[in-house]
Design goal:
alpha/beta; Rossmann fold; 7-stranded mixed beta sheet; 7 helices; about 25% helix; serine-type peptidase activity; dipeptidase
Length: about 240
């Protein structure tokens, strides 16, 4: 498979503008490309497709790359099939996945990625790149017919992964606890991706980028921490 993916935990880190913290990696992903097809379906905060696309357009135009929104096309599958590259932004993962299926772009996206088209996701756009959306942090505000996602990688991702605060008196579940619950019913690995971190996937190779370690959860083992210099390629060969 000729995968060419950049899976980013978040679009904005503290003290930076939209996508600024990942500029170097985004430029590398899109080297030689002049345009990006933006999929605004996740609609963070209920923002309109038009306004969300304008936000993405403003960021990419600084880098000499034009942006069009998928909602601007009458034939969404055709637009995906003809795109130079695709970026799916963050927001609500359930809303996003429902729209991807309703507009019949799940299979075209999988096909284009297999052919090597650059794919970039942030937050919900990263979550849907995995096997299922079962490890999203979002509220299920709409009904989806299936949790099966784009399956561009054979594991699940938990964007915005947070470690427990040892000084907190909050008695709610931690991310570790929720992922442990997930593994009572699902076998695929889960990568907890901290803010500022991203996964770069090229073919059968994967690297962790950014300033932090990532926590990898396996169904039959204790969680493990991996540094950017560590080998994560085994996760592309599981299940």
């Amino acid at each position: 498979m000729s995968r060419n993916l950049l899976l980013i935990s978040t679009s904005t880190t503290h003290g930076t503008g939209y996508l600024e913290h990942a500029e170097q990696e985004i430029r590398a992903l899109l080297e030689g490309k002049k345009s990006v097809l933006f999929i605004p379906y996740a609609r963070p905060g209920g923002i309109s497709h038009k306004d969300y696309t304008s936000k993405a357009r403003e960021a990419f135009e600084k880098w000499g790359i034009s942006v069009s929104g998928l909602h601007e096309y009458d034939d969404a599958p055709k637009a995906v099939k003809e795109a130079e590259a695709v970026f799916i932004g963050g927001g609500n993962t359930f809303v996003l996945l429902r729209q991807l299926y309703q507009n019949k772009v799940v299979e075209p996206l999988r096909e284009r990625v297999r052919q090597g088209m650059p794919y970039m996701g942030t937050s919900a756009g990263t979550n849907v790149a995995g096997k299922t959306i079962g490890t999203t942090n979002d509220m299920p505000i709409v009904h989806v017919k299936t949790f099966d996602a784009l399956q561009l990688v054979p594991f699940n991702i938990n964007p915005h992964f947070q470690d427990p605060d040892p000084g907190s008196t909050h008695m709610g579940e931690t991310r570790d606890t929720r992922i442990a619950e997930f593994h009572h019913h699902n076998q695929q690995p889960v990568i907890g991706l901290r803010e500022g971190s991203m996964l770069r996937v090229q073919g059968d190779k994967m690297k962790l980028l950014g300033p932090h370690t990532a926590r990898v959860f396996l169904q039959t083992d204790k969680p493990m921490e991996f540094k950017p210099s560590d080998d994560l390629n085994f996760l592309l060969d599981v299940y």
